[in-house]
């Protein structure tokens, strides 16, 4: 039995010992059949997550082991109803001297923040339409910090730290290439639409570590919230009468493609249609690439909920 | 052959003579098989409309007989492909001395504007929640003129002058009664939702006489436009942080009931669900009552497009 | 550990002791892993229900502890897979001297039977159409007892004793108000439709205590059953040729609104459409009000299956 | 120009002369562009139908040339908007001495009435379940005349005189064979279901010559009407408590297969499912055989509305 | 406690002892809460299947007890979460001297292989179209062995050894009868379509004992695979230009009836439509008859997934 | 009145004279109300098409003026029911000395054939997987002529000469860029899928000038036809056992994305999903760009049937 902390909790096997730091993502109280209190902890590091039970939990334990708390834990990996479960041997909250940080325990985009902001800045610099450029710049300034840390969704695609910026930067790259192949496309409009289309998620989602929906997110959703934000920003910049503002709102409003998918109007401008397709393409490639990485040639991935529950096959032959 | 102008163009029969004033709603140029230009005019008064052909139309005719122009016309009612058509014997644009006004030629709500504004004011006066009351008051002040003249839709229900205010006032009456039967309902919230739910139509539709969709209406629709307006108004009134604002936006956003019908979020607050149902109830009763008025007991109405294309039966026995 | 029977089984917490009378709603035999027989009992009083296990159940126990039997039980509230479970310390069937009655153990409408029948009688008294009035009176007479005890459904809305009558009486109140706002509505027809629309449920459902579907209910459903009943009743009253009978059948037949929802014909008479909408409105308000009562301001209700699985938010501010 | 009456109006070509008797199926008044009245007549014999215009129609003409009147007509086959149209040279109502009868002018089933009733009687004779046999016998007795003359539908399949009986007799033949292949099927139940499933159409449709829907047919439909009829008949025969009655009602109720297609309950008894499939099979074969008869090998039929608008191909090779 | 092996594992009850041979259909490794390895075995004979746990499984056990291995087992029938489970007292792999064969442990069609091939041969002998007959003969020759052993599906209908041939033979019998009732049907085409329609399943499914989908089956499906096979066979027989080949491919391609059900083209030839309906009829009768056999009169079957999840009622009265 | 032949028939206005060569796409016989024969001709050149009537058409005319015949025609542009119609003054079939060719009268891809084949060859040259490359090369060789002349569809997108090759070449360009952005994509597989996905259209469609569906196209469709072709080709090249062949068939089979859209299997391999999206993207851009070219900034296009009947707006501001 040796310490396997190096490989991360997402890669341990049944029977492994574990000794290291983990972040509590969720903590639920329970009662055993003979009435003893216990805690079910969902623990994670940047590689994945695992469930653990803390038996005979005292009132103090309940107040110590709460979501977003980092813990030092030693245990053994067992199994419960077909899933790995961590048997806790010892556990304590982390201390300042441990020098561990919440941000170390969440999955991150494969590209660094600096590089992401650089790419974004480059795209904005390319834009020639002053109105669109000013609006985009103002939003980047307002939300820069959150934009670089938020995921693009709570699950399915780009659901990791900086996922939102990573998604935007990938979409900008596709747009750039498409514009070269089809010069009729209005690049500035497409860029502006791509950069702003999901920024409403910053108000729709609660944060990076334990991402849930805010009340505003539940009752309004990121699309109408963003239409309102663009309206307010246009007033501030005194460009509210420019047609660019209306068209940009339309791109954001229609980017889910259909009423059933949350866009009260379908795309009715060429760049709106293309924004929708690029969004789909990048989200699907992100999901597919990450799922296929986890399987060997000749195998199928797990079923992907956001892709109509399909399991994908990885061929045996290679490029 | 006698002059039937008294009964209004909506009530003439084939063979009737006609002599009176009509409003041009639409004018389309055409060319006969031997190349002669003519105008197809869609003419209306407050009772209905009829098509007419102006043969051998000169360039001058084309510039005189345009939409929203009132004309003095004498003719005979004939028939073309199963529909009445007015054969023009003489026609001239109206003159100031004729003392006729566009507003005389459009259908109007069965309740006077004064009475409508009185009813609205009463409802607002009943409200006790200061935030909701202030927002509603501000909108009524901003849009009073348009609110009292706009139709509630381009067709289907309340599609006449003051239709929007008429629809609101009827819904308020239903809400008042429901609140008495179910005191759990938050009356202030329901009233505010009813008054504001369709005000976005003032920007979505082009006007009263020849109602079409504005560009903003086509690309955004009245629901997202109104969310933005409430946001801006709340900032002005410095109440943007109150939960009432969020809930009111949700009521407006969800009042179509389903994503497929244009509401990106379904009703998730009790009063939002009830607003949706009252809207449906009042719109359907308006359509049904007006269609059934046109048929005799023992007959079916024409098919009503907005009610799944059903034709309704009017029973022979009476209340 | 004190006796908490006062507050009712629907309000006990894990750890509470319990000593009181409960009604058996369901009793299922099981076998432990080492082959010992046991009974799983679903027990209820007017406030709610709880599961209990009776270990080492003898043949005699199996014959004593059956559905609709009241038992005197002492035990402790524990937990099993996240749900409360009653640990039985002692249990015996109730005796005549206990003076407890099945009707004390089921949830009831918030309005007394006397008041419900009074309201129904008032409505019938208001009716002026002799044919409709006679039919309605005859049905009330035939089914009075069941009508006042049956629930309106097995679950979702008005699923409690006298629920059917409660639903009818609420709908009549809405109809009365709507008729005042829209005098075109045929009140007699609407009243007759409301009173009869769900009476078929008396044959579709098995009863008040352990409500299930009868064979006839499963194979025909309450709507076609009621059409047949109206036909038979009309023959008895010798009014089968009156148009009122046909229209009344149509109201009952179409009250679910759509073929997919069980109405082979959609509403094709104004009052049929309004009956459908009032039915919806009252059912939804019943569900919403009862769910929202259980949560605090700022919280969401549980998901409501019959309302497209939505969870509803209770705002923080009040009327 | 020779008289082509021998081949029937359904087989004439543009340019043919016509002289013979025809039945008026529909007569509509119109007005020419210069205000002259005319009649549009839809005329038919057993082979098909054709449109004709009677110009300068007098008031007397309007009262003579009405639906279900037979006329003696001479004319020429022309064409209007791509469809054949009969140019009337002379026309007069038929006289008693002409010895022509409405029944000669409608399409008929390919099997004689005598043979149809014989087949029906044979099937009933084969039945051994007394309850089912009595009910079926009673219905045959009650409706024999109409059963042998009604079509099975206004269009699509078996839409000719005796079509209803023809459809039943074909279905009985399929059922008999299926019962031999699958002896588990309850033949008596299947026979009873087949014979009664569409008898409600006798009240749903107006008759044989100009088949439309009755008011009862529009507001209730043949399925609920038949459930009621079986209920009344069972009371008369005092078998209303037998399970056969309930199951037979279920077969009739569910024979359209799905709620969307008019059956509030889907088939929940084996013979109900098989009744639905035999109904489908026979209706489709009737449509297919009659459409394919009209085209040559190597051609497609016209699009068949009731078969999802498909056009069917007739192969070049033969059996 | 007596040995109940005679009645087969599908008919044992909780508490029965068992001693006999069973086939392993599935074997899954698990780990108890205290880390001990065990095997979950799914065991079957021709009458049904049961789960069993082999506790403290050694590495050797893991290699001995694998799918398609027959074992000699003694144990007792217990229960786990409402389902029977076999408690293993002793178990060993079968030996050659046991003289047991995998084919004895799978469910079989109720008709012997010899009789099935005889029926098939008869049908082919009846065919008069040389092209169709040659193609069918060639396929029967190529796949005879598999055709007589394969099931028609992994579940739902004819999911037993020889199920494919059984399904074909039943369908041929229905087709023969239908052809007598409707002589317009091209019997040769219908026969050829029936025999070939599901032969692609031989490549789509993995075999008889533990039937799963092959990779080709998952990525292409039996319909496109069979179109290709008919094309290759037609080339071999040098009949690829005959229209019969195209029409036969169409029958196979369209036999699922709709795009949503896997047929890229709907039936566009009469016999294609009839093939689809016969396929449905035979599959449904197979499911219904087998499910109804398991219940008593007055009961409902379990819900049948492939029949829209309906449970079917077995009436109390009999034929 | 001057000769406007220079600008092409697609650009003429009502009142213009016309004198030039046109191709007959369709010729239909008709009969006037007084029985005179005439021909309705649909005439086209590379710029568009127009209808014309040839009155008093003789038998000789009927045999001269047939589809795919080029004619020399002088006439005047009039109007019929809102659409331009050519009034014929004189018309004669073209003569060899006119030196006009059918290929001059059809719309062509904006890229020359030489350039298209060059691009295709480059892509194939880039491929490294020998099996995929050999199959693609073999198909290009087999169908080169047709591939370079066929349209990609009968209407909607790339519906012009060389449209198929143009569509393939555009998709290859997108694929190349995507592969650079997402190197995980198997470029060879994607290229092979793109090149072959629509080649079945060569057998599904009848040709370039008057494109209709072949019998095989109607009964099988291009997707199953192409699966069969790949199978036959793989046998010829003796690579039928390679997994590449199966995966390539899957890409072609699934490229419509869903069963409802004609793919019996949805994409289950990453490159299949991406092929589907690139196909969509290129088809939509082709439609959008061509429709938007025809309108001015500030206008909407006509409704595009293949894009859910949407009309697209062209913004006033520019890139």
UniProtKB/TrEMBL annotation, chains A, B, C, D, E, F:
This is 3'-5' exoribonuclease YhaM. Keywords: Exonuclease, Hydrolase, Nuclease. InterPro entries: HD/PDEase_dom (IPR003607), HD_domain (IPR006674), NA-bd_OB-fold (IPR012340), NA-bd_OB_tRNA (IPR004365), YhaM_exoribonuc/phosphodiest (IPR050798). Signal peptide: none annotated. SUPFAM superfamilies: HD-domain/PDEase-like, Nucleic acid-binding proteins. One of its GO terms (biological process) is rRNA 3'-end processing. It comes from the Bacteria. GO terms for molecular function: exonuclease activity; nucleic acid binding. NCBIfam families: PRK13480.1. Residues 167-284 form the HD domain. Pfam families: HD, tRNA_anti-codon.
